[in-house]
What does this fold into?
Amino acid sequence: MSFDAVAQQPKLLYLLQGVAAFAAVVSLILLALHRGPVRRRAAALLLLAPALLLLTVGILLPGLRTLALSFTDSGGDTWAGFDNYVWMFTDHGALVALRNTLAWVVLVPPASTVVGLLYAAAVARSRFRTFALSLLLTPMAISFVGAGVVWKFVYAYRPTGAGQIGLLNQLVVAFGGEPRQWLVDSPSNVLFLIVAMVWTQAGFAAVLLAGAIRGVPAELTEAARLDGASSGQIFLRITLPSIRPTLLVVLLAQAIGTFKAFDIVKTVTGGQFDTGVIAHEMYDQAFRYGETGRGAALAVLLFLLVTPFVAHQVRARRRAG
Amino acid sequence: MRFGARLALAVITLAVTATACGTPQDSGSRSQTTADCAPYARYAKHPGTEVTVYAENRDREADLFEETWADFADCTGIDVRYEGDGEFEAQIQLRVDGGSAPDLAFFPQPGLLERFARAGRLKPVSAGVAALAKQGWSADWNGYATVDGTLYGTPLVANVKSFVWYSPKFFRDKGLSVPRTWTELMAVTEKAAASGVKPWCAGIESAEATGWPVTDWIEDVLLRQQGTDVYDQWVTHKIPFNDPRVIEAMDTVGSILKNDRYANGGFGPARSMASISFQEAGTPVLSGDCAMHRQASFYADMWPEGTEIGPDDDVYTFLLPGADAASRPVLGGGVFTAAFADRPEVRAFQEYLASADFANARMKKGPFVSANKGVDPANAATPVDRLSIQLLQDPRTQFRFDGSDLMPASVGVGTFWRGAVDWIGGAGTRQVADSIERSWPSH
It folds into this structure.
């Protein structure tokens, strides 16, 4: 199907209207600023107005609406008080999702950071640094959904005697073991999903940390070496403290991302076998079960959980800047 | 291997179509055919109009739909724009909320249709469609698209779920005959087990829908043990989910599916079914590692390529028997059309879809079953379709819709499926039934 300009006319018209409206707003502001002497505060407000407006429409209002919805029932129109929040902390499925999210957030950021750090330290001064880093970065180039499909195959199960199609079970069988249903046996299946997440995230950590390690002044490490420090000591006492800010940024970014983990769970297990996480449960409730109120309540919870991390991140960045 | 090849093909096709036209599932009904327009005269002419259709069916199923209504489109001048989406059930809500509802949607679950009807989004059917519905389907079938006495749609597709797939050759070799009563079924089961073959195979892995084949089993057995009244009361929650009669049905299913002696043929211990996708679960029937596989009529499409289906071929199917040879309890599912718009062209198309003409034309194109009384079983593309239609048209048949599709979504596609998975994993019947009962929404 080719692009049919006539058929697309209404959309083009909307686009045109949007551009015109934008231009009008900007010129109004410029005009207002231009007219006579204005106090600085008013000028700042005027310049901020478009951004504030967009933030209000795009984030603040939907956020407030979600908050309001979280106090309503499934249809989203009858007041339900704190029912949805009570449900969240009493329902088995929701509690499992909370437990799993906790496990994810506790395990994924440190694990992917440690993997990334060790890898970065190992290759930071190597000749093949770029190549080695891009190897670890490849999983990041794959979408989470793609990664999920890959790991679903890794964990695939076939009974004893049948040809294994999963890498992990093939290894187990090759060493004389019995194939296991990795994704079915709870709660260890949560750990197997976490491994998949770490696989996708370690590259991000490695690249940032490798950069930071390169930034550690060579004089420092050289001086330490002259003083007779072993490479282990140099790493722990010189490199690590020097890259602490980057380490923190990486950890926080991972934590925020992990809270919102959804794709891997959806593609690998679909939240079955007690592997659900908050974001996935939220989707199920709101869109598959039509339980708008519960979905909104989970969204609010997710927001509350992520906020401290984001706040800290912003503050850290401000300090750095 | 086959899957790999198919995946590669799918990826290539997707890439090619995506680059070629941007919208791979878009309607191609502009092609000119020299159709005889007389049968379509009653739908009048609607030149230059467009009807958007949104449904779950993709690929071949979508193509067959489009081929079937191509003549209708040409003769009436309506441009039918079909879009198939595997995520239909989740996306339709977003579409409607976002103000881009399709004109027509094919709802695979009456519960979903009801949700939109109650929200005032769906348009009640026109008088013409209502007349066709009354003429074409039983009160039971129309009841599934009726909300508070108003008819909102018509059945489009039907499928029979209570089928047991088996290998006629295997049955002959082992001296087994097709059972006509539940007692005979259990005798066949025991005989196969005694001969060293696990009689039943099952697979319940289906991504987020994992567990649904087990819920079908439970519904099927409840329908057989307690009859339609108790079944209806259970589905509508007039009796609790964990009623002792439901527990009894679950335990009967458990005596088969949770029994390592009876399941999981060709795959190992009973628990293995949690890792086996429902699509591949029946394959051990072909190799003689499993005697029977209970799965819906649509399983016909899931046998490996080259598998012949018929009473004397590789695989065939019989109705999961009732308590006695005379009863015909049939559990099934279906897809319903319903409209979000009531423009004349939408009405015309909905009327066409509700006609027996459409069902017959569609059946001639390929595998398809309609519960319309006006369809001719002779048009069925496969022996299983023919059997399904005969069952659906048999006055003795007591048809009941898949209960999990009728229950509130948070139970029907949520806790019931999850509970079934836990149950297969080893959780106790009472414990699982109690927790599903607790999850039933109170509003």
Remarks:
- Confidence is low (pLDDT under 50) at residues 1-5, 7-32 of chain B.
- The longest strand of chain B covers residues 328-339.
- Chain B has two domains: 20-160+333-397, 163-331+401-439.
- Chain B touches chain A at residues 21-23, 26, 89-90, 93-94, 115, 119, 207-211, 266-269, 271-272, 274-275, 408-410, 413-415, 417-418, 421-422, 425, 435, 439, 441, 443 (CB under 8 Å).
